[in-house]
Amino acid sequence: MSESAGKALDLLFYLARASGPISLARLSRDTGMNKATALRYLNVLESRGVAERSGTGWALGLALFELGSHVPIRSIVVERVRPFLERLARETGESANLACLAGTSAIYLDRAEADNRSLRMRSVPGDRLPLYCTGVGKAILSLLSEERARAILGTGPLPKINENTITDPELVLKEAAVTRETGYGLDREEYETGLTCMAKPLRLPGSDFAGAISVSGPTARMRDPAVKDRFVECLSRAAAEAQTALEAAAGVDAVESPGGRRSGAVPLKPERTE
User: Fold this and answer.
1) How far is CA 78 from CA 108, 241, 246, in A?
2) Which helix (H) or strand (E) holds 139?
3) What mean pLDDT comes out for the span 82-109?
4) Taking every pair of C-alpha atoms in the chain, what is the biggest distance, in angstroms?
5) For the chain, counts of helices (H) and of strands (E)
6) What are all long-range contacts of 73-80, with beta carbons under 8 Å and residues at least 24 apart?
7) Res 60: pLDDT
8) Cα–Cα distances in Å, from 124 out to 105, 130, 152, 165, 256?
9) Which residue, among 274, 132, 268, has the nearest Cα to 191 in the 3D structure?
10) Residue 128 CB contacts under 8 Å (≥ 6 apart), including other chains
11) Are 108 and 95 in contact (CB under 8 A)?
């Protein structure tokens, strides 16, 4: 690999580990690259759409999502989580879903449905959903730093889906905090009228994947305390086992993120090509 390509990739990986836009001055300080050189590489990356100016700083660009669709991370997650998703649907008699963060929204990756489910969801795998008014969205937000969550939600009123939708970003942040405390996010008919969803967060160590596993059903049924408790139990078991399966996908390493924090990482094994 040429030195120039290596430096460009170093900048991309640095931005990927950041919790939000990074100023040129900090980027230069943390990477040891002088500002002029760093700016030259960033301009090239920006021209390709893989980096972008965000306010007074720099962040990853949307073109990486297109590239990411060809990376096996999502297929790895779906493959590992699928058995627990199917069991969750069977145990609850409802729809179980797997979603992940994609830009400023959530995207459904997979779904398992019970044959006798009482309510059909309108969303399907591949659909994008808001973070602020869905169970999976709140679970995903609970994984993010407050700085990153605020950057995603913005400061103005959020679009109102129905009369139950929370549109104040500050209240959504409080919902994310409650999710961290209780261990699961709850959508109380905030996205689909008549539908309640509860979700628990999922991480894929060694990647920026932030996801959630959920179960959704009719509000009339899920208001029953006994039903709710059983669903939480089933969901918690599925999430714990799915998380263990994801962590078993590869070995553990430690990487340093911007700001000097250290976090667990798992170097994913490359796909076999034959």
Assistant:
1) 10, 14, 10
2) helix 135-141
3) 93
4) 62
5) 10, 10
6) 73/204, 73/207, 73/209, 73/268, 74/100, 74/109, 74/209, 76/204, 76/249, 76/268, 77/109, 77/202, 77/204, 77/209, 77/211, 77/246, 78/109, 78/110, 80/242, 80/245, 80/246, 80/249
7) 87
8) 15, 14, 23, 21, 37
9) 132
10) 102, 105, 106, 107
11) no
Closest CA to 139 of 191, 199, 190: 199
Q: How far apart are CA 221 and CA 116, in angstroms?
A: 14
Interval 152-162 mean pLDDT = 92
- Measured at the CA of 17, the angle between CA 11 and CA 19, to 5 degrees, comes to 115
CA gyration radius for the chain? Answer: 20
- CA gap 134, 117 in Å, rounded: 20
Q: What's the confidence (pLDDT) of residue 258?
A: 40
Helix (H) or strand (E) holding 100: strand 95-102
Map tokens 């160590």 to a residue. 205
CA pair distance 137, 191, nearest whole angstrom: 11
CATH numbers and ranges of domains, the chain: 3-67 (1.10.10.10), 73-247 (3.30.450.40)
